[in-house]
Amino acid sequence: MDEVAIKPTIDIIVCASTNNTTSAKNIDHSHPITKPSHSQSLAFLTKIHAGYFFICVSFGAQALLWKSLSEHNNESQTLWHGFNFMPSVAYLLLWCLAVLIAATLSFLYMLKCILHFNVVKDEFAHHIGVNYMYTPWISYLLMLQASPPWIVSRTCYYEFLCLAFSFVIFLLDVKLFGQWFTTEKRFLSVVANPVNLVSVIGNLVAAQVMTEIGWNEIAISMYSLGMVHYLILFVTLYQRLTCSNQFPVVLRPAYFLYFAAPSMASLAWKSISGAFLISSKMLFFLSLFLFISQVGSKFSYIYIYIFNWLF
Amino acid sequence: MQACRPALFKKTMKRLNVTWWIYSFPLTFLGLACAEYAHEVKSSMASALMLVICIVSVLVFVFLMLTNVLKVERLLHKNAPSK
What we know:
Oligomer: heterodimer
Shape of chain A: globular
Number of helices of chain A: 13
């Protein structure tokens, strides 16, 4: 398994770093008219949006998973032996890659903020786009959490970074959650969509990280903020009218966020309370049920499709 | 608007998009929660569940990485889903 994981990782570095060149070449093909290279890079920048940070979130989460598995691995247990072959080298590589991709994307996004501030402002004003703004911060927090202690030492700088990223998430909360009940055009019943769950996940990740550095009070406040809004969102999403707000088809994968939130909540509650208590288990089972229902409904579509095709 | 047209749906879903990455991390979070649960309960059933979910998550992640590496230009040219 480690070979499979290592191989593509090397490729993606190359691709991430050559992003600029490939896109520039393609533009050259389509527009033979000579343009200054400056405007080409500008056109490329407008295509990058905060949603690209989902890549970093995935990498960060994966690194965290491998880290936690290799930690559990040390204590001998029944099925944990299956993970003995998993070297910590793969985890380290995954983490480095995550940092590299995050750095590249952040740099590009910062350039976009400087050069195309209006586009960023539009993105921020969009009812789906605003949720994407959470993703960079979530990915940074996950990467900090997954960072190997011998590379990123747990000093006051680490705490400062955690605090800073959580504070940004808090500011975004004030904006987004505030809008849900104060701004008439942005009432939750109008704008509710599965991507909103990203904001809840942001709060929960922040809560978990804050507990790890020992700021329990802030952790609990972030957690409660996240959970209350999770409940509201959960109910609203269930009661959504089909025609009130059309959800873009491209965003179908966002339905997977339904079960990400409760499993993150169970993890966060585990770190706050110090043990995997009944409430964490309840959240875990909820998440598992939502996962099964998502996958089950996907499969039922496949059955119907096959059935239609046969007869 | 696109929701009304099923033909269009197939087209958009076949094309690689950056939103595909949303498939990966919820599975990973679920895997993490499973690992904690298995650690707490210490039954073989829970460990098996954890193993299955973690493997699924790793497979999805590797698949996404491979498709992204193979089709980088599509990833960049397919634009903002939020618009």
